[in-house]
Design brief:
Low-confidence stretches: none
Largest sheet: 2 strands, antiparallel
Helix content: 25-40%
Strand content: 15-25%
């Protein structure tokens, strides 16, 4: 009986450490304007990075802000933004315009 209680207690304590995740499908668009001396492949990779950044911001973002007042004047203002995740990328359409 003691072993059973110990096992149930251990499982109960370890349960919150398991991550509960969900799979989201997000469609985003990335844009990049080529500059002098850049190749089309560099522009495509930078547009893909822009689309990934936008998708990550839409997926999960943690925002924390801190403000400190002294004599009714703002002395400190700090904002932390964190985004993390794993993504699978499928390119649906590529278009180049002039």
């Amino acid at each position: 009986m003691r072993n059973f209680i110990a096992i149930v207690t251990t499982l109960f304590l370890l349960l919150p450490t398991c991550g509960f995740t969900e799979i989201k499908e997000i469609v985003s668009e990335g844009n990049y304007s080529m500059r002098d001396g850049e190749t089309p492949s560099i522009a495509e990779s930078r547009a893909l990075l822009d689309a990934k950044r936008i998708a990550m911001e839409q997926a999960e973002t943690y925002v924390e802000s801190y403000s400190k007042l002294k004599n009714f004047q703002l002395t400190e203002d700090e904002v932390k933004v964190l985004a993390s995740g794993t993504m699978e990328v499928v390119i649906l359409d590529k278009k180049r315009t002039i």
